[in-house]
Amino acid sequence: MPAEFVISFQSTHDVIKAKKELQRACIAHEIIPTPKKFSSECGMSVKVEAPVLDQAQEILRLKGVRYKSDLL
């Protein structure tokens, strides 16, 4: 089973935009509750498997979707 990664966001609006853009790009993902150990900013995150992580992050960057590492 491939490793899974959680992409967290500052707002629900960003999660919804990320979901839309990842669906358009046909990148497998899942919307999950944000684990409390990662963040308390937004209650939802996106989970992706390791093989598509770089591609997912690139799509989010290209489409202007702000995710946690962009906000630090």
How would you describe what is shown here?
The chain has helices at residues 12-24, 50-62, 68-71; strands at 4-8, 30-33, 44-49. The protein is of the alpha+beta class and 72 residues long. It has one domain: Alpha-Beta Plaits (2-Layer Sandwich). Strands 1-3-2 form a 3-stranded antiparallel beta sheet. The longest helix is centred in the first third of the chain and has 13 residues, at 12-24. The protein is globular and about 25 Å long.
- CATH class designation: Alpha Beta
Would you tell me the overall average pLDDT?
88
- Beta-strand level of the residues, as a percent range? 15-25%
Radius of gyration: 11 Å
Helix content: 40-55%
Give the total of domains: 1
Largest sheet: 3 strands, antiparallel
Order of helices and strands: EHEEHH
Quick overview:
The protein is an alpha+beta fold and 72 residues long.
Which characteristics define this entry?
72 residues, alpha+beta, Alpha-Beta Plaits, three-stranded antiparallel β-sheet, 3 strands, globular
